Sequence to fold (1125 residues):
Amino acid sequence: MLPVLLLTFLLALMAPALVSWLGRRAFWVLAIGPAAATGYALANTSRVLAGDLPVSRTAWVPGLQLSIDLRLDLLAWFMLLVVGGVGALVLVYCSAYFARDALGTGRFAAIFTAFAGAMVGLVTSDDLLMLFVFWELTTVFSYLLIGHYADRKASRRAAMQAIVVTTAGGLAMLVGLIVLGVGTGTWRISEVVADPPTGTPAVVAAVCLLAGAATKSALIPFHFWLPAAMAAPTPVSAYLHAAAMVKAGVYLVARFAPSLSDLPVWRWLVVVLGGGTLLLGGYRALRQHDLKLVLAFGTVSQLGLIILLLGSGERALALAGLALLGAHAMFKAALFLVVGGIDVATGTRDLRKLSGLWRTMPFTTAAGLLATASMIGFPPFAGYVAKEAALEGLWHDVTHGGDALATATLLTVAAGSALTVAYGLRFAWGAFGTKRSVAPQVTVPTPVRRQPWLLVGPPLALALMGLVLALTPGVGERLLAPYADLYPKGDPGHLVLWGGFTPVLAVTVLVLLGGAAMFWGRARVERLQDALWSPRGADVVYRRTMRRLDDVAADVTAATQRGSLPVYLGIILVVLAVAPGAIIASGLAGGTTVPVEVVPWDEPAQLAVVLIIAASAVLAARARRRLKAVLLVGVAGYANAALFLLHGAPDLALTQVLCETVTLVVMVLVLRRMPPYFTDRPLAASRWLRLFLAVVTGLVMMGLTIAAPLARVATPISVDFPSEAVEFGGGKNIVNVTLVDIRAWDTVGEISVLLVAATGVASLVFLRQRNAEALRLSSGDDVPPDTFTRRVWLAAVSTVAPERRSVMFEVVTRVIFHVMILFALFLLFSGHNAPGGGFAAGLVAGIALTVRYLAGGRYELAEALPVHPGLLLGTGLFLSAGVGLASLVSGHDVLESFIVDLHVPVIGTVHLVTSLFFDIGVMLVVVGLVLDLLRALGAELDRQGDLSRRELEQAGEGAR
Amino acid sequence: MTVLDTTPSLALVIAVGVLCGTGVYLLLERPLTRVLLGFVLIGNGVNLMLVVAGGRAGAPPIVGNSPASERMSDPLAQAMVLTSIVITLALTAFVLAMAYRSWQMHGHDEVADDVEDRRVARHAALNAPAFEDADAAETGETLDEEAADVFDDVDDDEDETQGAR
Fold:
C-alpha cells in the first residue's frame, strides 16, 4: 500500500518535468499512479473479502504517536477502486482535453496527481491524525485546482471560498478526531471503531466529525462552495467534485457510522442535513442553465442522499448507500466528462444555446444518456439498483414500526428522487435535444468540431460500467454486504434488479412519473420557482461573515499595532512589571516558603564598584551628548567586569573587559559620523511615565534577583561539573570546559548567532557590493603610487592624511601588535586550565587588529589580515561543528572530546584535548566578527565619508 | 566543591536594579543610539542577575586553583553569562549598523512610528478596507453564477485526425 502511495506522490513530483518532455501525453504516464491503486485493490480482493486485511505500519513521529498506518479493509478497498479508477480515466481524458499550448499544464498535472495520492492515503489511512493530514492535503490541492486559472477572478474567489469553508470544517473534524483518540486511548481508527467512546465525548466527536463531513461533502448549510467550485477545469469537477474529494465526507460518515450512529444527535443531524441537502440541491438544479451547474447542484443533492443512507446506521440502507456511492462516482464523473466534451466541441455549456447534439455527437450522447439513466434511477442501471435498495429499506422501516422520522425520510427520499429525475431529464434534453429556440429549422444543430476518442472513451467506459455492474447485482451485494453488516441495526439488505410487484416498485414508478411530469411542465415549474423564494441565503451569509471578519481583523490590528516602538516595548515591560511583580509583592505581603534574607555584600569592595555603576548608569541616562553617553555606559560595563572578578568569575571579567573595549571602539567609529547630540525633544508627560516604568522595572528586577537564588532548593546540576571537567573534559577551567564540552551545543548555537549578526552588519553597511573585495593597497584608487611595493610595517599608514597621523600611536602599535597576537594564542591554549579560551583569544586578536586599523587607516586592515571575514566566520563554524561531527562519525556522542597525551621531544608531554579544535573554531568566528565590524563600521564608513566629502567639494567647485 | 549558598548580596541587587532601571528608561526613548545604550545597560544588569542567581561569591571555578575547603562559585551560570556577553556585543554592533543606516537615509536615527500601521488604523476606524482587493468586491452575482462564465483552455485543434463524433 505504501509503495502505491509513494509512487503516486513521486509521479506528482515528476509531473512538471514529464509534461515539458512529453507534452500532453504525460497524463498517460501519470495515470499509472491511480491505476496502480486500483490494481492493488483488485489484486487484494480475495484477501480483503476473507478478512485477511493488508496492513502497513510505519512509525513517523513516535513522540506524537504519529505513524503512517495503512489498512485495506472493505470500505477502503471500495473507495480505492472508485478513487483510483475514476482518477486514471480522468487523467487519460485530460491528455486530449487541454490545449497543447495551454499554460500551467505541468502544475495542473502535478497537483492533480498529488490529489489522487492524497485521496489514496485518506481512504486507506488507519491513523486518526494521518486521516486528518490527508484530508487537509485534499483541501489544499482542491484549492489549487479550483484556482487553476489564477488570472480569473471567478476562479480565485471560488477557490478561496472552498478552502475557507472546507478548512473550517476540517478543523472541527480535527477536534472530533482528537476527542476520539483521547477518549479511547488509541489513535488507530480500526481500534477506535471497534471500541467507540460513550457519553459526552461521543456526542462531541459525532457533531465535530459531521461538521467536517458536511463541509467536505457540501451539505447544507455549507453546500454553496461546490457549485462555485465549477470554476475549476472540467476534469477537476469530474474527479474532485463528483467522484473523489466530496466523497471524503461520505467516507468519514461511512467509517464512523457503525460506531456512532446509535447517538440520537448523529441520527437527527444526518437526516436533517442529508434530507435537506437532497431537496435543496434538486430544487436548485432545476433552475440552472449551465450544464456544469446542473450537475453541480445535482451532486449536492446526491451527496445529501448518500450521507442520509450511509449515516442511518441500518444495514439495508448502508448497503444501498455504498451502492449509490459507487454508482454516483461512475455516472456523475461520466456526465462531467461529457459536458467537457461538449464544451470542447461547441465552445459553450449553456443549454439554451445547444441544440441537436444527439445527431452530431452520437457517441458522446450515448455516454451521456447511459449515465443520465443511471442518475435518475432508471432500470436496469446501477443508480436504479441502489435507489431500489434504499426505498426497500426505508419502506421496511416505515412498515415495521417506524416512527415519524422514518416516514419523513421515506417521503424526502422519494421527493428528492423525483427532483433528480426532473433535472436529469432536463440535463439530457438540454445537452443533446433539439431545441427550436436555438435552431428554428430542426435540421441545423449547433456546429461541432471533431471529437477525439480520448474525450469520448472515458465517459463511455464509466457509463457502460454503470450498466454492466447493475446487470450483475449479486456480485455487488457479495462485495459490499460485509461492510454494511458491520452496522449496528436492521436486517441485511439486498441488491436486486427485480424485486417483484411490491409497494416499493409502485413508489419507484411514482417517482419516475412525477419527475417526468415536472420535466414536461418545466416552463410552469420555472415560473413557480421564480415566484417562490429562492434559497440562496447561505452564500450571502458566508460573504457577510467574511466581510465582518475582515473588519474585526482590521480593528484588532488597529488596536494592537500602534506602529510605535516605545509603545510595544512599554507593553512588554508593563507585563514584566505586573506579572512577576504581583507575585513578588504577594510573596512579600503573604509570606514565602523560604525566608527572605540578604547579606549587605560578599566583599566590601563590591560596594565601591556598585556606586560607580549607579553613578555612571544614571549619568548615561541623562546625557544628551552621544559620546558622553557611550563612554558612561562603557564605564558601567567595565565596573561590571570588576564585580564579576570580585564574585569569583575571572573568565567573565576577562570577556567583559574585552567585549566592552570592542563595543566602545565600534561605537565611537560609528558615532564620529553621526551628529554629536541627541535630537532635542520637548519635555513631555510621557517622560514621567517612562521614569515611572523604569523605576518599577528596576524594583521588580531587584525582587527577582533576590527571589531567584533563594528559590533554588534542589542540588544544582553543576555540582558534578568539577570532577566531570577534569575526568571527561580534560581541563581544569570548568567554565571553559562547560563552553567547549559539557554544553558545547549552546556554544555552537551562539557562534552561529555571531555569524548571522556579522553578516547582518555587513549587509546594512555595504550597500552595493556585499562581498566587496578587501581594500588592499594594490586596489585603492586614492593610494599614492608605489606605496604597496615597499615591504614595511604599517605600509598603509601613508594613505592616512598627515594631520590624522600620530607617531606615538604608530610606534606603540608596532610594539604591541605581535605581543597581543601572542597573548591571544596563549589565552587560547591555556584556556582549558586557566582563565581564557576561544572567546577571549578571539577578542584579544580582534583588538590587536583594531589597533592596526586605528593607526594605519582602512587599507591597513586588509594588509594585516588579507582574508575575507566571511571565510573566517565560515571556517570557524565549520571547525567547531566539524569536531562534533568527527566524534559522531567515530561512533561517539556529538561533540564528545578525547584526551590525548603526546610525548613530543624537547617540549615534553603535551596534554591535548580535542575540544581545543572547537575552541579554535570559536576564536576564528570571533576574529571574523571583529574583522567584519571593523571593515563595515570602520573602513567602509571611512570610504563613504571621504566620498561624500569629495562630492561636497566637487559640488562647491561646480557652483563657483 | 560547590556548596549551595544562595543568599544574595544587597550591593549586587542594587546594581541590578539601577542597571535595569536606567536601561529601561533609555530603551523607551526614540533615538536608536539611546535605545541601544539602554539595551546594553539592561544586558549588563541581567548578566549580573544570572551570576547572583548562581549563588554567592566564591573562589574561581578552576580545579586546583584554591584549597578544596574553599567554596567555588557556580560555573554553569558563568558559562551562560559568558555566552550572553559575546552575543550582546554582536547585537550591539547590529543595532549600531541599523542606527547608522537610519541616519544615512533619514538624517537622524530616531525610530519613527510606522506610517503603514497608522494608515491601517485610520482605515479600520472608518471601516474601510485598508487595501484594494478586487476579489472581495461585490459583483451582484453569486459565485456559482460567475463560475458559469469560466471556460477552460481546451484543445480546439481542427486537424485532429483520429476522431469520432
User: Anything to note?
Assistant: The longest strand of chain A covers residues 55-61. The CA atoms of residues 319 and 480 of chain A lie 7 Å apart. Strands of chain A lie at 55-61, 66-71, 451-452, 899-904, 908-913. The longest helix of chain A spans residues 915-959.
